[in-house]
Amino acid sequence: MNENDPTSYSLLTYGWVMVVSGWGGVVTYLRKRRDGVVPMFSFMEFVGELVTSAFAGLVTFFLCEAGEVAPMLAAAMIAISGHMGSRAIYLIENQIRSRKGPIDGA
Length: 106
Fold this sequence. Notes:
- The structure is a single chain.
- The chain is mainly alpha-helical.
- It is built from four helices and no strands.
- It has helices spanning 11-34, 43-66, 71-84, 86-100.
- Helix 1 packs across helix 2 (43-66) and helix 2 (43-66) runs antiparallel to helix 3.
C-alpha cells in the first residue's frame, strides 16, 4: 500500500486535482444553465459547484492513491467525480456505510 500521507503530495499535484475536478464542476454548471435550472449567471451556484466538485475530486484522489489506481485512470475518475459533485460524495458515503456500518451512529 502507498505510504504517502496528505502532506506528502506537492502543491502541483493538488493543483491538478483541483483543476481536473473543478472543470467537472464547470461542466455541471453549464449543463444546469443550459437546462434552465439556474439563471443565466448565478455566482453562488457557480462557486458552489466548484467547491463541491473540488471536494469530491479530492476525496476521489485520496481513494485512488490508497487503492494504487493507475494515474490516468485516477485522473478520469477525479474528473468524473468532479462532474458528479454531491452525487459522488453521496455514493462514496454509501459505500463507506455499507462496509463500516453507520458513520454518525444513526
